DNA sequence: GCTCGTGGTGTTGTACACATCATTGTTCGG
DNA sequence: CCGAACAATGATGTGTACAACACCACGAGC
Protein backbone atom coordinates (compact mmCIF):
# COMPACT_ATOMS: atom_id res chain seq x y z
CA UNK A 1 0.00 0.00 0.00
CA UNK A 2 0.90 3.67 -0.40
CA UNK A 3 3.52 2.77 -2.98
CA UNK A 4 4.36 6.09 -4.49
CA UNK A 5 1.09 8.01 -4.24
CA UNK A 6 2.15 10.83 -6.55
CA UNK A 7 1.63 13.88 -4.42
CA UNK A 8 0.33 15.72 -7.43
CA UNK A 9 -2.97 13.91 -6.94
CA UNK A 10 -4.73 15.10 -3.81
CA UNK A 11 -7.90 13.40 -5.02
CA UNK A 12 -10.69 12.60 -2.63
CA UNK A 13 -9.96 8.90 -2.40
CA UNK A 14 -6.24 9.42 -1.84
CA UNK A 15 -6.88 11.85 0.98
CA UNK A 16 -9.24 9.35 2.52
CA UNK A 17 -6.70 6.54 2.33
CA UNK A 18 -3.97 8.72 3.76
CA UNK A 19 -6.00 9.92 6.72
CA UNK A 20 -7.26 6.39 7.34
CA UNK A 21 -3.76 4.93 7.34
CA UNK A 22 -2.36 7.65 9.58
CA UNK A 23 -5.03 7.38 12.25
CA UNK A 24 -5.05 3.59 12.12
CA UNK A 25 -1.30 3.51 12.64
CA UNK A 26 -1.57 5.89 15.57
CA UNK A 27 -4.16 3.66 17.18
CA UNK A 28 -2.22 0.45 16.58
CA UNK A 29 1.06 1.94 17.80
CA UNK A 30 -0.68 3.24 20.91
CA UNK A 31 -0.15 6.90 20.14
CA UNK A 32 -3.87 6.86 20.82
CA UNK A 33 -4.23 4.35 23.65
CA UNK A 34 -7.49 2.45 24.16
CA UNK A 35 -10.03 4.71 25.84
CA UNK A 36 -8.59 7.89 24.37
CA UNK A 37 -11.10 10.38 23.06
CA UNK A 38 -10.47 11.64 19.55
CA UNK A 39 -11.49 15.18 18.69
CA UNK A 40 -13.10 15.38 15.26
CA UNK A 41 -12.44 19.08 15.04
CA UNK A 42 -8.79 18.80 16.01
CA UNK A 43 -8.13 15.97 13.56
CA UNK A 44 -9.97 17.78 10.80
CA UNK A 45 -7.83 20.86 11.43
CA UNK A 46 -4.67 18.78 11.44
CA UNK A 47 -5.43 17.27 8.04
CA UNK A 48 -6.64 20.59 6.70
CA UNK A 49 -10.15 19.38 5.87
CA UNK A 50 -13.64 19.88 7.22
CA UNK A 51 -15.32 17.53 9.65
CA UNK A 52 -17.37 15.92 6.87
CA UNK A 53 -14.62 13.93 5.10
CA UNK A 54 -12.88 13.21 8.39
CA UNK A 55 -16.06 11.72 9.81
CA UNK A 56 -16.06 9.36 6.87
CA UNK A 57 -12.67 8.10 7.96
CA UNK A 58 -13.79 7.70 11.56
CA UNK A 59 -16.88 5.81 10.43
CA UNK A 60 -14.66 3.38 8.54
CA UNK A 61 -12.42 2.89 11.56
CA UNK A 62 -15.53 2.27 13.63
CA UNK A 63 -16.66 -0.42 11.19
CA UNK A 64 -13.24 -2.01 11.58
CA UNK A 65 -13.68 -2.11 15.32
CA UNK A 66 -10.97 0.40 16.22
CA UNK A 67 -13.24 3.25 17.26
CA UNK A 68 -16.65 3.73 18.77
CA UNK A 69 -18.67 6.91 18.48
CA UNK A 70 -21.34 7.81 21.02
CA UNK A 71 -23.76 10.59 20.26
CA UNK A 72 -23.20 13.59 22.47
CA UNK A 73 -20.20 12.09 24.22
CA UNK A 74 -17.31 11.48 21.84
CA UNK A 75 -15.46 8.94 19.70
CA UNK A 76 -13.18 6.68 21.66
CA UNK A 77 -10.48 4.16 20.85
CA UNK A 78 -11.94 0.77 21.67
CA UNK A 79 -10.57 -1.71 24.11
CA UNK A 80 -11.39 -5.41 23.90
CA UNK A 81 -12.09 -7.89 26.63
CA UNK A 82 -10.05 -11.05 26.91
CA UNK A 83 -12.91 -13.26 25.73
CA UNK A 84 -13.35 -11.51 22.40
CA UNK A 85 -9.59 -11.37 22.03
CA UNK A 86 -9.35 -15.13 22.47
CA UNK A 87 -11.83 -15.71 19.66
CA UNK A 88 -10.04 -13.33 17.37
CA UNK A 89 -6.65 -14.84 18.08
CA UNK A 90 -7.96 -18.34 17.52
CA UNK A 91 -9.26 -17.17 14.17
CA UNK A 92 -6.03 -15.41 13.37
CA UNK A 93 -3.79 -18.41 13.71
CA UNK A 94 -6.18 -20.62 11.80
CA UNK A 95 -6.11 -18.07 9.00
CA UNK A 96 -2.32 -17.93 9.14
CA UNK A 97 -2.26 -21.61 8.31
CA UNK A 98 -4.80 -21.03 5.56
CA UNK A 99 -2.55 -18.38 4.08
CA UNK A 100 0.11 -21.04 3.59
CA UNK A 101 -2.31 -23.27 1.71
CA UNK A 102 -4.16 -20.66 -0.36
CA UNK A 103 -2.40 -18.55 -2.94
CA UNK A 104 1.10 -18.50 -1.53
CA UNK A 105 3.64 -16.81 -3.76
CA UNK A 106 7.43 -16.82 -3.58
CA UNK A 107 9.02 -13.51 -2.58
CA UNK A 108 10.61 -11.38 -5.28
CA UNK A 109 13.92 -9.55 -4.99
CA UNK A 110 12.37 -6.37 -3.58
CA UNK A 111 10.68 -8.35 -0.83
CA UNK A 112 13.91 -10.15 -0.01
CA UNK A 113 15.59 -6.79 0.40
CA UNK A 114 12.83 -5.65 2.74
CA UNK A 115 13.13 -8.85 4.75
CA UNK A 116 16.87 -8.34 5.15
CA UNK A 117 16.30 -4.78 6.31
CA UNK A 118 13.65 -5.95 8.78
CA UNK A 119 15.99 -8.62 10.12
CA UNK A 120 18.67 -6.00 10.67
CA UNK A 121 16.25 -3.75 12.50
CA UNK A 122 15.25 -6.67 14.68
CA UNK A 123 18.85 -7.38 15.68
CA UNK A 124 19.26 -3.75 16.63
CA UNK A 125 16.17 -3.81 18.81
CA UNK A 126 17.39 -6.95 20.55
CA UNK A 127 20.58 -5.04 21.42
CA UNK A 128 18.69 -2.00 22.67
CA UNK A 129 14.97 -2.69 23.22
CA UNK A 130 12.71 0.28 22.65
CA UNK A 131 8.92 0.01 22.75
CA UNK A 132 8.05 2.26 19.83
CA UNK A 133 10.61 0.78 17.45
CA UNK A 134 9.54 -2.71 18.46
CA UNK A 135 5.93 -1.92 17.67
CA UNK A 136 6.85 -0.45 14.29
CA UNK A 137 8.99 -3.45 13.42
CA UNK A 138 6.21 -5.82 14.36
CA UNK A 139 3.78 -4.03 12.08
CA UNK A 140 6.20 -3.69 9.18
CA UNK A 141 7.12 -7.36 9.36
CA UNK A 142 3.49 -8.39 9.33
CA UNK A 143 2.80 -6.20 6.32
CA UNK A 144 5.80 -7.71 4.52
CA UNK A 145 4.56 -11.23 5.20
CA UNK A 146 1.19 -10.31 3.75
CA UNK A 147 2.87 -9.84 0.39
CA UNK A 148 3.44 -13.61 0.26
CA UNK A 149 -0.17 -14.35 -0.56
CA UNK A 150 -2.15 -13.33 -3.60
CA UNK A 151 -5.58 -14.17 -2.27
CA UNK A 152 -6.82 -10.64 -1.86
CA UNK A 153 -9.89 -11.34 0.28
CA UNK A 154 -7.84 -13.45 2.67
CA UNK A 155 -5.18 -10.76 2.80
CA UNK A 156 -7.73 -8.11 3.67
CA UNK A 157 -9.22 -10.19 6.43
CA UNK A 158 -5.87 -11.03 8.01
CA UNK A 159 -4.91 -7.38 7.89
CA UNK A 160 -8.11 -6.22 9.57
CA UNK A 161 -7.77 -8.83 12.30
CA UNK A 162 -4.15 -7.91 12.85
CA UNK A 163 -4.95 -4.22 13.21
CA UNK A 164 -7.75 -5.11 15.54
CA UNK A 165 -5.69 -7.17 17.95
CA UNK A 166 -2.11 -5.97 17.83
CA UNK A 167 -2.56 -2.85 19.96
CA UNK A 168 -3.94 -4.94 22.81
CA UNK A 169 -0.91 -7.17 22.70
CA UNK A 170 1.39 -4.14 22.48
CA UNK A 171 -0.38 -2.63 25.46
CA UNK A 172 0.41 -5.75 27.44
CA UNK A 173 4.04 -5.50 26.46
CA UNK A 174 4.31 -1.79 27.25
CA UNK A 175 2.61 -2.21 30.60
CA UNK A 176 5.35 -4.71 31.39
CA UNK A 177 2.87 -7.47 31.75
CA UNK A 178 5.28 -9.04 29.31
CA UNK A 179 8.95 -8.30 29.40
CA UNK A 180 9.96 -6.25 26.39
CA UNK A 181 13.48 -7.69 26.14
CA UNK A 182 12.14 -11.24 26.17
CA UNK A 183 9.50 -10.41 23.60
CA UNK A 184 12.05 -8.74 21.32
CA UNK A 185 14.22 -11.82 21.57
CA UNK A 186 11.36 -14.15 20.75
CA UNK A 187 10.24 -11.99 17.85
CA UNK A 188 13.76 -11.89 16.45
CA UNK A 189 13.79 -15.67 16.49
CA UNK A 190 10.40 -15.72 14.74
CA UNK A 191 11.76 -13.54 11.96
CA UNK A 192 14.83 -15.75 11.72
CA UNK A 193 12.80 -18.96 11.53
CA UNK A 194 10.35 -17.67 8.98
CA UNK A 195 13.07 -16.27 6.74
CA UNK A 196 14.93 -19.57 6.85
CA UNK A 197 11.77 -21.40 5.82
CA UNK A 198 11.29 -18.94 2.98
CA UNK A 199 14.89 -19.35 1.84
CA UNK A 200 14.37 -23.04 1.20
CA UNK A 201 11.11 -22.20 -0.52
CA UNK A 202 8.83 -23.83 2.05
CA UNK A 203 5.99 -21.32 2.30
CA UNK A 204 3.86 -23.90 4.00
CA UNK A 205 6.34 -24.17 6.85
CA UNK A 206 6.67 -20.41 7.10
CA UNK A 207 2.93 -20.12 7.56
CA UNK A 208 2.94 -22.79 10.25
CA UNK A 209 5.74 -21.02 12.10
CA UNK A 210 3.74 -17.80 11.99
CA UNK A 211 0.71 -19.64 13.22
CA UNK A 212 2.64 -21.10 16.12
CA UNK A 213 4.05 -17.72 17.10
CA UNK A 214 0.67 -16.03 17.02
CA UNK A 215 -0.67 -18.78 19.23
CA UNK A 216 2.23 -18.56 21.68
CA UNK A 217 2.21 -14.80 21.91
CA UNK A 218 -1.44 -14.93 22.87
CA UNK A 219 -0.68 -17.56 25.49
CA UNK A 220 2.04 -15.35 26.97
CA UNK A 221 -0.37 -12.45 27.02
CA UNK A 222 -3.00 -14.53 28.78
CA UNK A 223 -0.43 -15.47 31.40
CA UNK A 224 0.38 -11.79 31.82
CA UNK A 225 -3.27 -11.07 32.50
CA UNK A 226 -3.52 -13.91 34.98
CA UNK A 227 -0.38 -13.16 36.99
CA UNK A 228 -1.05 -9.41 37.08
CA UNK A 229 -4.79 -8.80 37.19
CA UNK B 1 -22.56 -2.79 24.61
CA UNK B 2 -25.97 -2.45 22.83
CA UNK B 3 -27.70 -4.28 25.62
CA UNK B 4 -31.38 -4.17 24.82
CA UNK B 5 -31.84 -1.51 22.11
CA UNK B 6 -35.55 -0.93 22.65
CA UNK B 7 -37.29 -0.67 19.30
CA UNK B 8 -39.01 2.51 20.38
CA UNK B 9 -35.72 4.24 19.75
CA UNK B 10 -35.34 5.46 16.20
CA UNK B 11 -31.86 6.52 17.18
CA UNK B 12 -29.16 7.36 14.69
CA UNK B 13 -27.52 3.96 14.85
CA UNK B 14 -30.78 2.07 14.40
CA UNK B 15 -31.67 4.11 11.33
CA UNK B 16 -28.23 3.39 9.96
CA UNK B 17 -28.57 -0.34 10.52
CA UNK B 18 -32.01 -0.40 8.98
CA UNK B 19 -31.04 1.48 5.83
CA UNK B 20 -27.89 -0.61 5.53
CA UNK B 21 -29.79 -3.87 5.78
CA UNK B 22 -32.47 -2.78 3.32
CA UNK B 23 -30.08 -1.65 0.61
CA UNK B 24 -27.81 -4.63 1.12
CA UNK B 25 -30.72 -7.00 0.73
CA UNK B 26 -31.83 -5.25 -2.43
CA UNK B 27 -28.36 -5.62 -3.89
CA UNK B 28 -28.01 -9.26 -2.90
CA UNK B 29 -31.47 -10.18 -4.16
CA UNK B 30 -30.75 -8.42 -7.46
CA UNK B 31 -33.41 -5.75 -7.04
CA UNK B 32 -30.39 -3.62 -7.83
CA UNK B 33 -28.50 -5.68 -10.39
CA UNK B 34 -24.73 -5.29 -10.82
CA UNK B 35 -24.01 -2.14 -12.81
CA UNK B 36 -27.12 -0.33 -11.63
CA UNK B 37 -26.65 3.29 -10.64
CA UNK B 38 -28.05 4.28 -7.27
CA UNK B 39 -29.39 7.77 -6.80
CA UNK B 40 -28.35 9.23 -3.47
CA UNK B 41 -31.10 11.79 -3.60
CA UNK B 42 -33.84 9.28 -4.41
CA UNK B 43 -32.74 6.88 -1.67
CA UNK B 44 -32.44 9.71 0.85
CA UNK B 45 -35.98 10.80 -0.01
CA UNK B 46 -37.26 7.24 0.30
CA UNK B 47 -35.85 6.84 3.80
CA UNK B 48 -36.93 10.34 4.76
CA UNK B 49 -33.45 11.58 5.56
CA UNK B 50 -30.92 13.92 4.05
CA UNK B 51 -28.06 12.83 1.83
CA UNK B 52 -25.56 13.06 4.69
CA UNK B 53 -26.62 10.01 6.74
CA UNK B 54 -27.45 8.08 3.60
CA UNK B 55 -23.96 8.66 2.25
CA UNK B 56 -22.65 7.08 5.42
CA UNK B 57 -24.57 3.93 4.56
CA UNK B 58 -23.31 3.94 0.98
CA UNK B 59 -19.73 4.40 2.20
CA UNK B 60 -20.13 1.34 4.40
CA UNK B 61 -21.51 -0.71 1.52
CA UNK B 62 -18.59 0.46 -0.58
CA UNK B 63 -16.14 -0.74 2.07
CA UNK B 64 -17.92 -4.09 1.97
CA UNK B 65 -17.37 -4.29 -1.77
CA UNK B 66 -21.00 -4.02 -2.82
CA UNK B 67 -20.88 -0.50 -4.22
CA UNK B 68 -18.40 1.78 -5.88
CA UNK B 69 -18.68 5.54 -5.96
CA UNK B 70 -17.02 7.60 -8.68
CA UNK B 71 -16.76 11.34 -8.26
CA UNK B 72 -18.96 13.18 -10.72
CA UNK B 73 -20.37 10.00 -12.24
CA UNK B 74 -22.40 8.01 -9.75
CA UNK B 75 -22.43 5.12 -7.30
CA UNK B 76 -22.81 1.74 -8.94
CA UNK B 77 -23.50 -1.79 -7.79
CA UNK B 78 -20.26 -3.69 -8.30
CA UNK B 79 -19.78 -6.72 -10.45
CA UNK B 80 -16.92 -9.15 -9.88
CA UNK B 81 -14.76 -10.98 -12.37
CA UNK B 82 -14.50 -14.72 -12.27
CA UNK B 83 -10.92 -14.65 -10.96
CA UNK B 84 -11.74 -12.67 -7.85
CA UNK B 85 -14.85 -14.76 -7.38
CA UNK B 86 -12.76 -17.95 -7.43
CA UNK B 87 -10.52 -16.64 -4.65
CA UNK B 88 -13.47 -15.60 -2.55
CA UNK B 89 -15.25 -18.90 -2.99
CA UNK B 90 -12.11 -20.83 -2.12
CA UNK B 91 -11.89 -18.79 1.04
CA UNK B 92 -15.57 -19.26 1.78
CA UNK B 93 -15.55 -23.01 1.80
CA UNK B 94 -12.38 -23.15 3.85
CA UNK B 95 -14.07 -20.88 6.37
CA UNK B 96 -17.17 -23.05 6.35
CA UNK B 97 -15.05 -25.93 7.55
CA UNK B 98 -13.45 -23.65 10.15
CA UNK B 99 -16.89 -22.75 11.43
CA UNK B 100 -17.44 -26.40 12.27
CA UNK B 101 -14.23 -26.54 14.27
CA UNK B 102 -14.40 -23.15 16.00
CA UNK B 103 -17.16 -22.27 18.40
CA UNK B 104 -19.95 -24.47 17.11
CA UNK B 105 -23.08 -24.42 19.26
CA UNK B 106 -26.09 -26.71 19.19
CA UNK B 107 -29.33 -25.16 17.93
CA UNK B 108 -31.96 -24.13 20.45
CA UNK B 109 -35.68 -24.69 20.06
CA UNK B 110 -36.31 -21.39 18.29
CA UNK B 111 -33.66 -22.22 15.72
CA UNK B 112 -35.16 -25.68 15.19
CA UNK B 113 -38.50 -24.06 14.46
CA UNK B 114 -36.88 -21.74 11.94
CA UNK B 115 -35.15 -24.66 10.29
CA UNK B 116 -38.42 -26.54 9.95
CA UNK B 117 -40.05 -23.49 8.40
CA UNK B 118 -37.15 -23.08 6.00
CA UNK B 119 -37.37 -26.72 5.01
CA UNK B 120 -41.07 -26.32 4.27
CA UNK B 121 -40.42 -23.26 2.14
CA UNK B 122 -37.78 -25.20 0.24
CA UNK B 123 -40.21 -28.02 -0.56
CA UNK B 124 -42.67 -25.49 -1.87
CA UNK B 125 -40.06 -23.89 -4.12
CA UNK B 126 -39.12 -27.29 -5.51
CA UNK B 127 -42.76 -27.78 -6.47
CA UNK B 128 -43.02 -24.34 -8.09
CA UNK B 129 -39.62 -22.73 -8.68
CA UNK B 130 -39.62 -18.96 -8.48
CA UNK B 131 -36.43 -16.91 -8.68
CA UNK B 132 -37.17 -14.32 -6.02
CA UNK B 133 -38.42 -16.78 -3.43
CA UNK B 134 -35.45 -19.03 -4.09
CA UNK B 135 -33.06 -16.14 -3.51
CA UNK B 136 -34.79 -15.19 -0.27
CA UNK B 137 -34.75 -18.77 0.98
CA UNK B 138 -31.08 -19.08 0.20
CA UNK B 139 -30.27 -15.97 2.20
CA UNK B 140 -32.52 -16.87 5.13
CA UNK B 141 -31.06 -20.35 5.37
CA UNK B 142 -27.54 -18.98 5.39
CA UNK B 143 -28.41 -16.53 8.13
CA UNK B 144 -29.95 -19.33 10.16
CA UNK B 145 -26.84 -21.45 9.81
CA UNK B 146 -24.75 -18.55 11.06
CA UNK B 147 -26.50 -18.85 14.39
CA UNK B 148 -24.71 -22.17 14.92
CA UNK B 149 -21.39 -20.51 15.70
CA UNK B 150 -20.52 -18.20 18.55
CA UNK B 151 -17.21 -16.98 17.20
CA UNK B 152 -18.32 -13.44 16.40
CA UNK B 153 -15.37 -12.38 14.26
CA UNK B 154 -15.66 -15.53 12.15
CA UNK B 155 -19.40 -15.02 11.83
CA UNK B 156 -18.92 -11.45 10.63
CA UNK B 157 -16.39 -12.50 8.03
CA UNK B 158 -18.51 -15.33 6.68
CA UNK B 159 -21.47 -12.99 6.43
CA UNK B 160 -19.55 -10.33 4.55
CA UNK B 161 -18.16 -12.87 2.12
CA UNK B 162 -21.59 -14.37 1.58
CA UNK B 163 -23.16 -11.00 0.83
CA UNK B 164 -20.29 -10.25 -1.48
CA UNK B 165 -20.62 -13.37 -3.61
CA UNK B 166 -24.19 -14.56 -3.50
CA UNK B 167 -25.64 -12.03 -5.94
CA UNK B 168 -23.18 -13.13 -8.60
CA UNK B 169 -24.26 -16.72 -8.18
CA UNK B 170 -27.92 -15.68 -8.21
CA UNK B 171 -27.31 -13.71 -11.37
CA UNK B 172 -25.97 -16.87 -13.00
CA UNK B 173 -29.07 -18.73 -11.94
CA UNK B 174 -31.47 -16.04 -13.12
CA UNK B 175 -29.74 -15.67 -16.45
CA UNK B 176 -30.39 -19.38 -16.89
CA UNK B 177 -26.74 -20.15 -17.06
CA UNK B 178 -27.81 -22.55 -14.38
CA UNK B 179 -31.21 -24.19 -14.44
CA UNK B 180 -33.36 -22.87 -11.62
CA UNK B 181 -35.32 -26.08 -11.11
CA UNK B 182 -32.13 -28.10 -10.83
CA UNK B 183 -30.61 -25.62 -8.43
CA UNK B 184 -33.71 -25.59 -6.26
CA UNK B 185 -33.61 -29.37 -6.13
CA UNK B 186 -29.94 -29.41 -5.15
CA UNK B 187 -30.46 -26.76 -2.53
CA UNK B 188 -33.39 -28.63 -1.04
CA UNK B 189 -31.15 -31.65 -0.68
CA UNK B 190 -28.46 -29.50 0.97
CA UNK B 191 -30.96 -28.31 3.55
CA UNK B 192 -32.11 -31.86 4.11
CA UNK B 193 -28.57 -33.18 4.56
CA UNK B 194 -27.48 -30.43 6.89
CA UNK B 195 -30.57 -30.72 9.07
CA UNK B 196 -30.10 -34.46 9.35
CA UNK B 197 -26.49 -33.92 10.47
CA UNK B 198 -27.70 -31.40 13.02
CA UNK B 199 -30.37 -33.76 14.30
CA UNK B 200 -27.78 -36.31 15.31
CA UNK B 201 -25.72 -33.51 16.84
CA UNK B 202 -22.83 -33.71 14.39
CA UNK B 203 -22.06 -30.03 13.79
CA UNK B 204 -18.73 -30.98 12.28
CA UNK B 205 -20.46 -32.98 9.56
CA UNK B 206 -22.96 -30.20 8.92
CA UNK B 207 -20.12 -27.78 8.32
CA UNK B 208 -18.44 -30.18 5.92
CA UNK B 209 -21.66 -30.62 3.99
CA UNK B 210 -22.02 -26.87 3.71
CA UNK B 211 -18.43 -26.63 2.56
CA UNK B 212 -19.00 -29.24 -0.10
CA UNK B 213 -22.11 -27.50 -1.38
CA UNK B 214 -20.43 -24.11 -1.57
CA UNK B 215 -17.62 -25.72 -3.54
CA UNK B 216 -19.97 -27.53 -5.90
CA UNK B 217 -22.22 -24.56 -6.50
CA UNK B 218 -19.18 -22.57 -7.56
CA UNK B 219 -18.11 -25.38 -9.87
CA UNK B 220 -21.55 -25.41 -11.50
CA UNK B 221 -21.37 -21.67 -11.92
CA UNK B 222 -17.94 -21.92 -13.53
CA UNK B 223 -19.34 -24.47 -15.95
CA UNK B 224 -22.15 -22.10 -16.74
CA UNK B 225 -19.64 -19.39 -17.60
CA UNK B 226 -17.64 -21.77 -19.77
CA UNK B 227 -20.50 -23.29 -21.74
CA UNK B 228 -22.22 -19.93 -22.29
CA UNK B 229 -19.62 -17.20 -22.59
C1' DG C 1 -17.16 16.13 -43.39
C1' DC C 2 -14.37 15.69 -39.44
C1' DT C 3 -12.17 17.28 -35.27
C1' DC C 4 -11.48 19.85 -31.41
C1' DG C 5 -13.11 23.03 -28.16
C1' DT C 6 -16.77 24.53 -25.07
C1' DG C 7 -20.82 25.09 -22.44
C1' DG C 8 -24.69 22.52 -20.18
C1' DT C 9 -26.27 19.17 -16.98
C1' DG C 10 -26.16 15.94 -13.44
C1' DT C 11 -23.40 13.52 -10.13
C1' DT C 12 -20.37 12.90 -6.00
C1' DG C 13 -17.49 15.45 -2.47
C1' DT C 14 -16.99 19.38 0.91
C1' DA C 15 -17.89 23.20 4.10
C1' DC C 16 -20.64 25.17 7.45
C1' DA C 17 -24.52 26.09 10.36
C1' DC C 18 -27.73 23.98 13.21
C1' DA C 19 -30.25 20.11 15.76
C1' DT C 20 -29.86 16.57 19.17
C1' DC C 21 -27.96 14.36 22.94
C1' DA C 22 -25.19 13.52 27.30
C1' DT C 23 -22.63 15.34 30.94
C1' DT C 24 -21.73 18.56 34.56
C1' DG C 25 -21.97 22.25 37.62
C1' DT C 26 -25.18 25.27 39.84
C1' DT C 27 -29.02 26.71 42.24
C1' DC C 28 -33.26 26.37 44.50
C1' DG C 29 -36.23 23.83 47.65
C1' DG C 30 -36.72 20.59 51.43
C1' DC D 1 -26.87 19.77 54.79
C1' DC D 2 -28.69 17.03 51.06
C1' DG D 3 -31.08 16.21 46.77
C1' DA D 4 -33.25 17.09 42.54
C1' DA D 5 -34.36 20.05 38.73
C1' DC D 6 -32.19 22.90 35.35
C1' DA D 7 -29.27 25.62 32.56
C1' DA D 8 -24.70 25.69 30.41
C1' DT D 9 -21.41 23.37 27.70
C1' DG D 10 -19.41 20.53 24.40
C1' DA D 11 -19.74 16.44 21.81
C1' DT D 12 -21.75 13.79 17.68
C1' DG D 13 -25.47 13.65 14.03
C1' DT D 14 -28.11 16.14 10.29
C1' DG D 15 -29.59 19.42 6.70
C1' DT D 16 -28.35 22.44 3.06
C1' DA D 17 -25.78 25.13 -0.14
C1' DC D 18 -21.94 25.05 -2.91
C1' DA D 19 -17.57 23.32 -5.22
C1' DA D 20 -15.28 19.82 -8.09
C1' DC D 21 -15.68 16.69 -11.52
C1' DA D 22 -17.21 13.79 -15.63
C1' DC D 23 -20.04 13.05 -19.50
C1' DC D 24 -22.51 14.68 -23.58
C1' DA D 25 -24.26 17.46 -26.99
C1' DC D 26 -23.62 21.31 -29.89
C1' DG D 27 -21.12 24.24 -32.91
C1' DA D 28 -17.14 26.76 -34.89
C1' DG D 29 -13.02 26.15 -37.56
C1' DC D 30 -10.15 23.75 -40.83
Automatic annotation (TrEMBL), chains A, B:
Keywords: DNA-binding, Transcription, Transcription regulation. InterPro entries: GntR_C, TF_FadR/GntR_C, Tscrpt_reg_HTH_GntR, WH-like_DNA-bd_sf, WH_DNA-bd_sf. Residues 13-80 form the HTH gntR-type domain. SUPFAM superfamilies: GntR ligand-binding domain-like, Winged helix' DNA-binding domain. One of its GO terms (molecular function) is DNA binding. Coiled coil: none annotated. PROSITE patterns: HTH_GNTR (PS50949). It comes from the Bacteria. Gene3D superfamilies: GntR ligand-binding domain-like, Winged helix-like DNA-binding domain superfamily/Winged helix DNA-binding domain. It holds the Pfam family GntR. Signal peptide: none annotated. This is DNA-binding GntR family transcriptional regulator. It comes from Albidovulum denitrificans.
Amino acid sequence: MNVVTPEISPSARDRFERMHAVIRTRICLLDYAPGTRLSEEALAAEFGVSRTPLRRVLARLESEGLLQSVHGVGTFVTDVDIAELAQTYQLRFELAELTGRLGAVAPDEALWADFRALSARSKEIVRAPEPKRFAELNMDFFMALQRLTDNEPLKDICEKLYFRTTRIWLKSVFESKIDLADEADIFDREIHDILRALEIGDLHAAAHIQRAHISMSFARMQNGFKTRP
